[in-house]
Amino acid sequence: MFDLPLALDLLVAALVGLAVGVEREWSGHTTGPDGRFAGIRTFTLLGVIGGFGGWFFRDGQPVLAAVIIGAGALFPIAAYAATLRRPGTTTDGTTEVSAILVVAMGAASALGHRSLASAAAVLCVLLLAEKSTFQSALQKVAAHELRAALQFAVLALVILPLLPSGAYGPFGAFQPRQLWIVVLLFSGLNFAGYIARRVIGETRGLGVTGLLGGLVSSTAVSLTFSRRSRAEPHLALPLALGVVAACTVLVPRLLVISAMLRPAVATAAVPVLVLPFLVGVSLIAFVMWQERETRVPPTPELASGPEGAPAERHEANASDPRPLAPTNGHNPLAFASSLQMALAFQVVLFAIAWVQQAIGTTGVLLSATLLGLTDMDALTVSMTRYGADPANVRVAATAIGIGVLSNTMLKLAFVVTIGAPRFRARAALGLLALAAATGVGIWIGWP
Q1: Domain ranges of the chain
Q2: pLDDT computed for residue 26 by the predictor
Q3: 3-state DSSP helix/strand/coil percent for the chain, to nearest 5?
Q4: Where is 145: in which H helix or E strand?
Q5: pTM of the model
Q6: Which of 4, 132, 266, 330 has the highest count of CB atoms within 10 angstroms of its CB?
Q7: Tell me, what's the pLDDT at 368?
């Protein structure tokens, strides 16, 4: 009797080999003095060999399956050994390794994992076809960036599993593993902001720079741009746009943080924060549309830091076309800043736990007003912990909104007291619009 599922398994096994073989033929690795052993036909047959090996295993004949799959895997190894004996042959074994992978993917297909085999084949062909692209991208990676990626892997995959997951200390507010997750979260956000600024560049406009700077510290953007408006008053409008952009991107940043730690709090915070976000986007779109023909000069470098931390300033000539150095210098993770954030978060956890016991909901909202002046990220993470009790979810979301409003008023104070007159008028108008929208959002989400 015809076995349709088996036929489909073997067909996928053959197609897996065919796909890899087509790429090897197309890329020219099967011809020339350095040509490798396999092309379209050989790779297709290797996929079928793996498929039959998987089929025999499912049929209860593991020894025969091992012999077939082992022979299929040993063939490219023997071919590679023979190729190396030829004078002048390179040691590149990508084709042979791909052949072994084809046998494995064929076996996986016959074992009932057709989707997995197909996905692995697509990834394999992509890696083979885009060799030059990957090599070119790797050459652009600086040593400190690769080191930062490896450090993050150690922090996430080595240190995190070793930390205890229990709750300790007064009010059970000290949780080592959760605290380390906060460190990883902010380090990851710093790295993402670093990569974004490097890819897009610092010279694409003050609005874009404010938007990207807001990924790290919207307060730092507001303070730096307010100072720069005095040195370069002719940049009043783009500098004000940068401030509004930084304040706008703060909203999705906080929602992402809360969604990663407590989705229920993020969901409850959406009605509170969506209105200021829409107002900010509308202001940015309106100004960008009006100034669509205007070239914007280079921007200052913004240092990474927590909300409210001052930013370093890079004095750049408005006509200087040279790109500026990426943010965070040689520390894309800004690990020290992340540790400081986590410690501040831990202090806040103890404080909020105490306030909750002593005063209740009113005290939590009051502490959100004060904390919003200093550290929005610590407030958001703390509120996700506070929202672990379903009864506190709306209070936590409202507290985040109150913190955003408080933080916006702090930036307004920077703009009014430090900024040049033309910048002050434009930036203050935008911040007042954001504050009004936040107030309406708080009213809508009030518990």
Answers
A1: 4-138, 143-445
A2: 83
A3: 75, 0, 25
A4: helix 143-154
A5: 0.48
A6: 266
A7: 67
